[in-house]
């Protein structure tokens, strides 16, 4: 499939509640958090659901050491863009499996939070630009999140959730996929850029293991580059791009 080059449309604004479902701490901070900051500024709510603690992401730290550090950094990172609800499911980082149990957990969260927009990370095999293989966790979580949106609205799928006082929720109107090779829409990153930098900077333990560059310089340079690239298809405005799927 070829990468599209058409202009990116404005993300819809006819919604008030979002739920972000991703695999690891920092998944949302490599760009999407600028959009989250703009949304919370506008009075919208966004909750975060993470499948794992990202405990396998730092070679120099054992998973038992890394997990609490990454959890704390993610909570601080979310707070930097106005998000107060952050949940972790505790799946083992690196070996998250797509399947019915994962779909059920995500469907339960969707029924509990009742979002109109679900935000997730790239579920495709590759990253934008081609040649860079996506990780199994991202693919599994992204695809399970997409399927869970439909599961959440069907009372005959996971009927035990109704018994747990989680009735069907058919109110999801949009699924926004961040980091997709096939973006269709974008959010202006101007208002949320500085908080996006602060949000990514909260992941200091991970960033220190990732690069020898000064952390703030690394965060600012990375986000400037990705958001400037979006500007080429977004009327010259730096932005955060999403593949938007409608229900």
From TrEMBL:
**What does the UniProt keyword field contain?**
Hydrolase, Zinc
**What's a single GO MF annotation on this record?**
hydrolase activity
Instruction: Give the SUPFAM superfamilies listed for this entry.
Output: LmbE-like
- For the keyword Zinc, the answer is yes
Name the enzyme's class.
Answer: hydrolase
Q: Which InterPro entries match?
A: GlcNAc_PI_deacetylase-related, LmbE-like_dom_sf
EC assignment: the record states 3.5.1.-
Task: Look up the domain of life of the source.
Answer: Bacteria
Which Pfam families does this entry report, sorted A to Z?
Answer: PIG-L (PF02585)
Q: Please state what the protein is called.
A: PIG-L deacetylase family protein
């Amino acid at each position: 499939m070829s990468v599209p080059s058409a202009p990116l449309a404005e993300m819809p604004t006819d919604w008030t509640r979002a739920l972000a479902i991703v695999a690891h701490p920092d998944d949302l901070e490599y760009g999407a958090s600028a959009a989250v900051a703009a949304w919370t500024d506008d009075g919208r709510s966004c909750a975060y659901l993470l499948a794992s603690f990202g405990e396998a992401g730092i070679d120099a730290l054992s998973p038992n050491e890394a997990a609490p550090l990454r959890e704390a950094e993610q909570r601080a990172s979310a707070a930097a863009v106005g998000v107060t609800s952050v949940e972790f499911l505790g799946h083992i980082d690196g070996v998250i499996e797509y399947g019915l149990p994962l779909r059920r957990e995500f469907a339960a969260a969707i029924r509990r939070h009742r979002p109109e927009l679900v935000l997730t990370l790239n579920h495709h095999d590759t990253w934008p630009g081609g040649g860079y293989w996506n990780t199994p966790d991202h693919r599994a979580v992204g695809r399970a999140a997409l399927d869970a949106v439909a599961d959440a609205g069907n009372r005959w799928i996971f009927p035990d959730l109704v018994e747990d006082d989680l009735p069907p929720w058919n109110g999801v109107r949009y699924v926004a996929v961040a980091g997709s090779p096939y973006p269709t829409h974008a959010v202006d990153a101007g208002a949320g850029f500085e908080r996006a930098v602060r949000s990514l900077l909260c992941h200091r333990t991970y960033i220190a293991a990732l690069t020898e560059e000064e952390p703030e310089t690394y965060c600012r340079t990375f986000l400037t580059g990705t958001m400037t690239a979006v500007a080429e298809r977004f009327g010259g405005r730096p932005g955060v791009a999403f593949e938007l799927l409608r229900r």
